[in-house]
C-alpha cells in the first residue's frame, strides 16, 4: 500500500472532522473509506458500553447486526482485540468462534468468516470500541500491512471523538446519562435500550427528549406490546429526576381493595393482615417518578383519590388521618381509548385531563418499517447467548416474512416469536450446529399469501401484467430488483450478490429500467 493511496483514503475523513454531520452518516463514511483502503467483505464499528459491544455502523453485514448487543466475555475474538494495544489479525485456522459467522449480507449459505482482523479504538487513552474487518477469502488480508489499519484507527478515533463532542454540545446529555447510570447501578436495574432507526421511532425519541426535561404528566398510549414501559423509563432517564427512583405499578394486576394500599400505603390495623405501617408507591417515588401502567383499569373511586394527590401533592395512608407531602412526577400508560371511556361514563373527565397533559403515542411495530430487523437482531443475540450457539441468524426469506407480517402483538410478539422459533429450530437439528439459521418456515408466520408470491414471483407479476412481453418482463425485473434492494437496505453490492449479477451489470440494468 502506497502513501498516496493511504492519503487518498484518509483525506475525505479529515475534511469531515470539521463538518457537522449526523452521527450515522459520519460513521457510514468512515466504514466506506476503510473498505476502499482495506478491501473486505464486511466492516463494523462497535462502541464499548460496559461489558457489551454495541454496533454503531456496519457495511456488508446483515441489517439485524445493528440490533445485536455482543457481550464481550462471550466472544473471545472481541476480548482478544480489546486486550491488545494495536491491530490483530487472526489466523485463518483459528478455532475461536467469529461473532459474524453467518451474518455477511446477502448470503443464505452457512458460510463462516475465514479472514478476520480488527483494531481497538482509544479516546483519551481509554478503550472506546473496535473497528473490525472480515473476509470470506482466508488470504484476503495477507498483503495488508497492519500499520495501515493502525493509521486508519487513529483517524477513526478522531472521527468518533468529533462526533461525540458535537453530540454533547447539541444535546447536553452527558450529565443525564451519568445520573441515570448511577441510579441504574445502585438499583441493580438492567439498562434497557430503545432500538430503531425508522422515522416513526426517531420522532418518538425526539418527543421523549422534549418532554423528559419538563415535569409534565405524560400519558403514554399505544397498542399492547409496543414498549410503553420502556418509553416511561426513557422519559425518566432524560429528566432532572434521573438520579431518583422510578417506581412502577401495574394497575390491572391488583384488585381494587389492594390498589389504594399499594398507591398510598397503610398503617398497622388498617385492614385484616396489615401487621405493620407501610409506605405506598407515591412515598417510595418521592423526588422521582411514578409509572402507572394500565391506568385505564382504575376504578372511579381510586381515580378520585388519585386526583387529589395530583392536585395537592398530599396523601393519607389507609387507616390514618395524617397527611404526607410528596413530590412525584407521574407517567401513565394505557392501551385503551380513555377519551371514549370518558364519553361512556367509565372514566372521570377531570382525572383524564389531569393525566393527559402531554399525550405520547408509541407507534405500532408495523409502522416502523425495517426496525423489525434491528429488533430481531437484538433478540437473536439474546437467544444465541442463552442457547450457547456460535451464531443465530435469519435467512433472507425469514427477513422478508418479518417485514411483511402485521405484528398485532408488536415488539413483545416479536420477542416471543424469535425465542420460540430459535428453540424449535435447534430441536429439529440432529447435531448441534455452529450456525443456526432461521427460515420463514421456522418462524411459522401467517403469511401464506406473501410466501406464495415470493415463491412464484413470475406468475404473480404475469397475472397482473398487461401489454407486450417486453413491458411485462421489465415490470417483473423492476419488482424483483426493488424487493431485493429493500431487503438489503439499498446496498447494491449485496443485492447484486443475491441476484447473481455483477454489481456494474446490475447498475446498468437498473438505469435502463429507470430505477437510477
Automatic annotation (TrEMBL):
Domain of life: Bacteria
Gene Ontology BP terms: regulation of DNA-templated transcription
MF terms in GO: ATP binding; sequence-specific DNA binding
Domain Sigma-54 factor interaction, chain residue ranges per copy: 194-423
Segments forming a coiled coil: 156-186
Gene3D superfamilies reported for this sequence: 1.10.8.60, 3.30.450.40, Homeodomain-like (1.10.10.60), P-loop containing nucleotide triphosphate hydrolases (3.40.50.300)
CDD domains per UniProt: AAA
Keyword terms of this UniProt record: ATP-binding, Coiled coil, DNA-binding, Nucleotide-binding, Transcription, Transcription regulation
InterPro entries noted in UniProt: AAA+_ATPase (IPR003593), AAA_lid_NorR (IPR058031), GAF (IPR003018), GAF-like_dom_sf (IPR029016), Homeodomain-like_sf (IPR009057), HTH_Fis (IPR002197), P-loop_NTPase (IPR027417), Sigma_54_int (IPR002078)
PROSITE patterns to which the protein is assigned, alphabetical: SIGMA54_INTERACT_1 (PS00675), SIGMA54_INTERACT_2 (PS00676), SIGMA54_INTERACT_3 (PS00688), SIGMA54_INTERACT_4 (PS50045)
Name this protein carries in UniProt: Anaerobic nitric oxide reductase transcription regulator NorR
Organism the protein comes from: Pseudomonas fluorescens
Upper lineage: Bacteria, Pseudomonadati, Pseudomonadota, Gammaproteobacteria, Pseudomonadales
Amino acid at each position: 500500500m502506497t502513501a498516496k493511496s493511504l492519503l487518498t483514503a484518509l483525506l475525505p475523513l479529515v475534511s469531515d472532522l470539521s463538518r457537522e454531520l449526523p452521527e450515522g452518516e459520519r460513521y457510514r463514511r468512515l466504514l466506506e473509506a476503510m473498505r476502499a483502503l482495506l478491501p473486505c467483505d464486511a466492516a463494523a464499528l462497535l462502541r464499548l458500553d460496559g461489558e457489551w459491544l454495541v454496533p454503531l455502523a456496519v457495511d456488508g453485514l446483515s441489517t439485524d447486526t445493528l440490533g445485536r448487543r455482543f457481550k464481550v466475555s462471550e466472544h473471545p475474538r472481541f476480548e482478544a482485540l480489546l486486550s491488545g494495544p494495536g491491530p490483530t489479525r487472526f489466523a485463518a485456522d483459528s478455532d475461536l468462534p467469529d461473532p459474524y459467522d453467518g451474518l455477511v449480507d446477502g448470503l443464505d449459505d452457512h458460510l463462516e468468516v475465514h479472514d478476520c482482523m480488527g483494531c481497538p479504538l482509544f479516546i483519551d487513552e481509554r478503550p472506546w470500541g473496535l473497528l473490525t474487518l472480515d473476509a470470506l477469502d482466508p488470504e484476503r488480508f495477507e498483503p495488508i500491512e497492519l500499520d495501515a489499519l493502525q493509521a486508519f484507527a487513529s483517524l477513526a478515533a478522531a472521527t468518533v471523538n468529533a462526533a461525540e463532542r458535537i453530540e454533547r454540545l447539541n444535546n447536553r446529555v452527558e450529565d443525564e446519562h451519568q445520573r441515570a447510570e448511577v441510579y441504574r447501578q445502585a438499583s441493580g436495574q438492567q439498562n434497557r435500550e430503545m432500538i430503531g432507526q425508522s422515522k416513526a421511532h426517531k420522532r418518538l425519541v425526539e418527543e421523549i427528549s422534549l418532554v423528559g426535561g419538563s415535569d409534565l404528566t405524560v400519558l403514554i398510549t399505544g397498542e399492547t406490546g409496543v414498549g410503553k414501559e420502556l418509553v416511561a423509563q426513557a422519559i425518566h432517564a432524560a429528566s432532572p429526576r434521573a438520579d431518583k427512583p422510578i417506581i412502577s405499578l401495574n394497575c390491572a394486576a391488583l384488585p381494587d381493595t389492594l390498589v389504594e394500599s399499594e398507591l398510598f400505603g397503610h398503617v398497622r390495623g388498617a385492614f385484616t393482615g396489615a401487621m405493620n405501617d407501610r409506605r405506598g408507591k407515591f412515598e417510595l417515588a418521592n423526588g422521582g417518578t411514578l409509572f402507572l401502567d394500565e391506568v385505564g383499569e382504575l376504578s372511579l373511586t381510586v381515580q378520585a383519590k388519585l386526583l387529589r394527590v395530583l392536585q395537592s401533592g398530599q396523601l393519607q395512608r389507609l387507616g390514618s388521618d395524617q397527611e404526607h407531602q410528596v413530590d412525584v412526577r407521574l407517567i401513565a400508560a394505557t392501551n385503551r381509548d380513555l377519551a371514549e371511556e370518558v364519553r361512556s361514563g367509565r372514566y372521570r373527565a377531570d382525572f383524564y385531563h389531569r393525566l393527559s397533559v402531554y399525550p405520547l403515542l408509541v407507534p405500532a411495530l408495523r409502522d416502523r418499517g425495517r426496525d423489525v430487523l434491528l429488533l430481531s437482531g437484538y433478540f437473536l443475540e439474546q437467544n444465541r447467548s442463552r442457547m450457547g450457539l456460535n451464531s443465530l441468524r435469519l435467512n433472507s426469506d425469514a427477513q422478508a416474512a418479518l417485514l411483511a407480517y402485521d405484528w398485532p402483538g408488536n415488539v413483545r410478539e416479536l420477542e416471543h416469536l424469535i425465542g420460540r422459533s430459535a428453540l424449535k429450530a435447534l430441536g429439529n437439528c440432529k447435531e448441534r450446529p455452529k450456525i443456526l439459521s432461521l427460515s420463514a418456515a421456522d418462524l411459522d408466520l401467517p403469511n401464506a399469501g406473501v410466501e406464495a408470491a415470493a415463491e412464484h414471483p413470475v406468475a404473480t407479476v404475469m397475472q397482473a401484467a398487461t401489454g407486450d412481453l417486453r413491458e411485462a418482463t421489465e415490470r417483473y425485473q423492476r419488482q424483483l430488483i426493488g424487493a431485493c434492494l429493500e431487503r438489503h437496505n439499498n446496498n447494491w453490492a449485496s443485492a447484486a450478490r443475491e441476484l447473481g449479477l455483477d454489481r456494474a451489470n446490475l447498475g446498468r440494468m437498473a438505469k435502463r429500467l429507470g430505477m437510477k
